[in-house]
């Protein structure tokens, strides 16, 4: 659920030089900080109000605030399975705004229509986030700043995620095969692993820091 918060904060902290503007006429993309997980967890003060009722109210609020429907509107509410998506109300929110003519897009941990309520072509992938202690974050930040990168190195290690092939058409083996067959770059380590041959976490963190290119796939 915290992904909604850190995504909102990250975009909010962008400077004007990085593309942040408070003038709607200058904006190329409008961000919708849905906070749908928070909405589901918040007690409803009206005795008869349900989570579905609050989604209806939320949709109307967004409709009232929209300045230019034709420009992309990016929903900052990634979910992690279809059931969770239905429970927090992603589909009714997306459907209502789309039917109202809003040019809807969404971030997604997976480019999956059942998760985000939109075609994969309208889902912008974002990485999973792992909670770390302040000490761990500071250590990794320090290492990433001081450790030299291996030039032209490409790194990716991930699970096959067999279910994702049916859910969202995500075939990781097919995606990384061209890189595995590449012979022009000197340092490419991209592979699919399972429970029996997972990479040690410390080694994974080190490779993420020292590799010049680290892939994010579906």
Give me some keywords for this one.
single chain, 218 residues, alpha/beta, 4-stranded parallel sheet, 3-stranded parallel sheet, 10 helices, 16% strand
Provide an overview of this structure.
- The protein contains ten helices and seven strands.
- By secondary structure, it is α/β, with parallel strands linked by helices.
- A four-stranded parallel β-sheet has the order 1-2-3-4. It has a three-stranded parallel β-sheet with strand order 6-5-7, sandwiched between helices.
- Helix 3 packs parallel to helix 5.
- The longest helix has 15 residues.
- The two termini are 19 Å apart.
Short synopsis of the structure:
The chain has helices at 3-12, 36-41, 51-65, 82-88, 90-99, 113-116, 134-146, 162-168, 172-180, 201-210, and strands spanning 30-32, 73-75, 104-108, 123-125, 150-159, 187-193, 211-214.
Number of strands: 7
Mean pLDDT: 82
User: Structural class from helices and strands?
Assistant: alpha/beta
Beta-strand percent range: 15-25%
Summed up, the helix count is 10
Shape: globular
Low-confidence stretches: none
Order of helices and strands: HEHHEHHEHEHEHHEHE
The largest pleated sheet is described as: 4 strands, parallel
Helix content: 40-55%
Distance N to C terminus: 19 Å
Rg (C-alpha, Å): 20 Å
Give the neighbour order of strands across the main sheet. Answer: 1-2-3-4
How would you describe the oligomerization state of the chains in this entry?
Answer: single chain
